[in-house]
Known about the structure:
Mean pLDDT: 88
Number of helices: 7
Distance between the termini: 82 Å
Strand content: under 5%
Shape: elongated
Structural class: mainly alpha
Amino acid sequence: MSGKIKESFGQYLRRERTLREISLEEIAQFTKINVSVLSALENDEFASLPPLPFVRGFIRSYAEYLGLNVSEVMLRFSSFIEDNYAELIAPAPAMTSSEKRIRRGLLLGLFAALILGFFFTLIAI
Length: 125
């Protein structure tokens, strides 16, 4: 059994950070990303994080602060997510016609409430 254990994305981030002797708190202060989010990134807890577009932004900021090649880091992240968290990149199911009707009705109701509120504000003046 001589196989090399493949490093996870979070382990890669942590390794690069510790090699540079940078704390999570320092990254958080510079990037304005909460330490708990940075910790979740390093622990591969992607299901507990916001949607992927936000996570990609966090990773980009993290990589920039460490002085890493951002393109390579993002490519590594995409590959890791595809291999280990495919459910996070699966397309959202299409809305049914009844869900579309409900959404349309809610939007029309909100619009009507805004118009009435504006109208009654004008009358009160």
